[in-house]
Amino acid sequence: MSPASPDIRFLFEPRGVAVVGASPDPGKIGHRIVGNLQAMGARCPIYPVNPKGGEILGLPVARTAAEIGAAVDVAVIAVPVGRVLDAAADCARAGVGFLVVVTSGYAETGNLEGERQLVAFARAHGMRVLGPNIFGLFSAKASLNAGFGPREIRPGNVAIITQSGAMGGAMIGMTAAEGIGLSAIIPVGNKADLDEADLLEYLRDDPATEIVLIYIEGVKQGQRLVRALEATTRVKPVIVIKSGRSRRGAMAAASHTGSLAGADEVFDDIMRQVGVLRAEHLQEALAWCGFLTGAPRPAGDRTLIVTNGGGAGVAAADACEKYGIPLQDDFEMLSRVFAEVTPDIGSTKNPVDLTGQATAAHYTDALRRALGEPAIHAVIAIYCETALLAFDDLPDAIQRLARAYRAAGRPVAFCLLGGTRVTECIARLRAAGVAVFNEVYTAAACLGALNAWDRHRRAAETAPAPAECDEDRAVSIDFAAVRAALGPARADGRRFLLAREGQALLRAIGMRPPRSLVAGTLEEAVAAAATIGYPVVLKIVSKQVVHKSDVGGVALDLENRDEVIAAYQAILQSCRQRVPGLRIGGVEVTEMVRGGTEVIVGARRDPAFGPIVMFGLGGIYVEVLADVAFRAVPLSQCEALSMIKETRAHRLLLGVRGEERRDIDAVTDALQRLAVLVGTNDEVTDVEINPLVVYPAPEGATAVDIRVAIRGESPPG
Ligand code: COA
User: Fold this and answer.
1) What number is the average pLDDT over the span 176-182?
2) CA within 20 to 30 Å of 579's CA: 21, 274, 432, 704, which one?
3) Contact between residue 447 and residue 321 where contact means Cβ atoms under 8 Å apart
4) Are 42 and 113 found together in one domain?
């Protein structure tokens, strides 16, 4: 049995840090790490380790970690790949908890075995590995800059987990320039051992971390990540940038850190499911971080745009629509509040346009008025550079306004548009911790991110309306019947189920295939049709007939007894004529599935996230329209409903042009059943019901066709 893992807290707050591979040579990485640790003023002792001993940057050098003789929780390893195992053994003797492995030359270059050995050794000796292939680690709490990245780190409340070292290094400089402070920056590199989920465990409860920003290229152990993200977004915003969206990008990511990128749509949907804010790119992510740090929680999402430029106001209105921000449109109230500060040529409608005549005083006045009106929940404040703008006063005025808005719990996104003077003004304000933007779309995107995070938090806090869905609704399936349905395929070494096995599986998970009976005689066929209910379909049953329609073996849409009798006789006659020596196993009488709305429901084992479910518009359009949503398992009814609502198929289910509302409960039920099937049975790798025909509520849904792939010895066909 492996020894217990060290407490993750000691990675961020070590009692001592060793640099194994510390060098007196200023050109070496091991030297730079010691220098960085000193420069930031680490709150714990620094122990350079080098077999040659001596002194580095005034610190005595231990020949081995084992001879340090004091508590060392973190060892930064900066020795060549061939020496890392020796160094790890030395660290194990010293009682080190965490190996921060800077060294490259592992999975990213194909050296999987070396990486596996390192982790196995570490775990067997009670140590955890961060990396390998990383630049080090920064933790503000311990003033610990244990890496060879930049020194100019601004301490603050944003924690960054990054899979790319270079991006991490760049983010240190970029955050400092944007006035964003960091509580920690943790590169995970090849994620050989510690990954985002382990780090979130600490960051979630760390009071010094207000926001977590994750740069991710590929997901390993997606299910763990999903659970960790879910737990973290309940208490603080998590922003994710995932590259490898494009096929080319995904290929590059795979060779960069040796991990699997996975389908981007799946990633996107699952992030939304767990309340993660997904930024398109680094600039956007940093803007969100700046805005969300210390942002008040809005009372609602009715937003006001105040501008001194009509065009900028129009652009902001467009941007609000793009980011789903509803504008306050109580024009009577707006006129009452803003008429006095708005010239006649302006507008008090939203956007409130103060026009180019507005001075900083007008601008301030309008924003103070907005603050006095409780029906305005958030403001986008735009100022375009004009000759009337007194730049000397503006930064102070904005800073005062920002303070007043924060005190009142009202989010405000400032946007200043103009040239060099504006740029200087923005830099001054950002340095003072005020989130100011130079583009209306960025300002709107920030507010959109705040609203999305707030909606997620509210949904987690308040129970959903019981009429809509039941968070606790659970479904159960018949496990023994599932095993029985899979049995024949397993016995034959098939990777797919035959039609009747698929139908048995459907019944086993509590779903409804079309009602069907096999009749041996005309009387039985008539009785079966009456039992099933009209209209019905008749089909010949014979192992000699593969394409039933070709030999006249199918009759559709039979409305009554007489039609069934006529069709039965016609089918037998036609088949006997066309297939000499025909042996008939009977005639299958099946429910004629018609009406209803066709959707597709499915489930599969995603290489990154494990079991996931899928919903989309059904029938022949699914591939063309790509109108699908994904979720990770387990799946609550409310989550199932939210994935349906994400698609255009939802509108069809609600009924268009006077149609009745379809039985959406039956669809959420089907999705939950599939979630239980793939969540509890790793033999089923892919299951797709297409179409699931959904009837007006409360008539349920019929699974017309099911395709099931299972693990097996040989490929289908
Ligand atoms: N314990 C302690 N020190 C050891 C040691 C051991 N077991 N084995 C060797 N050393 C010492 C060496 O003697 C040397 O010290 P010296 O300068 O006094 O001789 C020091 O460790 C460094 O070893 P060296 O062989 O000089 O390696 P290096 O500094 O040229 O390179 C790495 C080491 C880790 C930097 C390099 O292998 C590497 O992986 N570089 C890429 C790092 C990277 O890019 N990471 C990803 C960032 S995103």
Assistant:
1) 90
2) 704
3) no
4) yes
